[in-house]
């Protein structure tokens, strides 16, 4: 069944990993997180490296290393995670390339743009702490 809004597998891994790390309050490695999330350690590590690059997480190598939050969970928004993993949001401006459009308004510019804007605001208003 189609969904209007859907998170990618990478976004789901990132969000769940940050929630687990916030709850644990100690570093966990990719294997430990992958076991809890039900994903592969390779996919988890790849996603978490994006979050390290964008300074949401830190990572330390070695037997006592792992990933840990760089900020308080209340300071990390869902949008921070989403934009780190998925990239910049495209509001998809209408191009009006179809000369036989039966209406004067672009549906993408009205409905989709508003829904995207509302979804971004929702993600900005919710933090990792809200899901702990």
Short characterization:
The chain has 132 residues and is mainly alpha-helical. It has a two-stranded antiparallel ribbon with strand order 1-2. It starts with 8 loop residues before the first helix and ends in a 7-residue tail after the last helix.
List keywords for this structure.
single chain; 132 residues; mainly alpha; Arc Repressor Mutant, subunit A; two-stranded antiparallel sheet; 5 helices; 2 strands
Question: How would you explain this protein's 3D organization?
Answer:
This protein is mainly α and 132 residues long. The chain is 49% helix and 6% strand. It contains 5 helices and 2 strands. A two-stranded antiparallel ribbon has the order 1-2. A hairpin with a 5-residue loop joins β1 (57-60) and β2. α1 crosses α3, α1 (9-24) crosses α4 and α2 (30-37) crosses α3 (41-53). The protein is elongated and about 65 Å long. The model has no long low-confidence stretch (mean pLDDT 88).
Largest sheet: 2 strands, antiparallel
- Residue stretches low in confidence (pLDDT < 50, at least 5 long) are none
**N-to-C order of helices and strands:** HHHEEHH
Distance between the termini: 29 Å
Give the arrangement of secondary structure elements.
Layout: H1 9-24, H2 30-37, H3 41-53, E1 57-60, E2 66-69, H4 78-86, H5 107-125
Antiparallel strand pairs: 1-2
Helix pairs in contact: 1-3, 1-4, 2-3, 4-5
């Amino acid at each position: 069944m189609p969904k209007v809004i859907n998170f990618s597998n990478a976004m789901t891994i990132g969000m769940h990993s940050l929630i687990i790390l916030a709850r644990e309050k100690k570093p966990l490695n990719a294997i430990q997180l992958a076991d809890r999330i039900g994903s592969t350690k390779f996919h988890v590590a790849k996603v978490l490296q994006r979050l390290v690059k964008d300074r949401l997480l830190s990572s330390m190598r070695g037997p006592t290393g792992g990933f840990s939050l760089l900020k308080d969970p209340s300071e990390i928004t869902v949008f921070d995670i989403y934009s780190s993993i998925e990239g910049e949001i495209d509001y998809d401006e209408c191009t009006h390339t179809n000369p036989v459009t039966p209406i004067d308004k672009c549906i993408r510019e009205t409905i989709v743009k508003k829904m995207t804007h509302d979804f971004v605001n929702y993600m900005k208003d919710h933090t990792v702490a809200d899901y702990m």
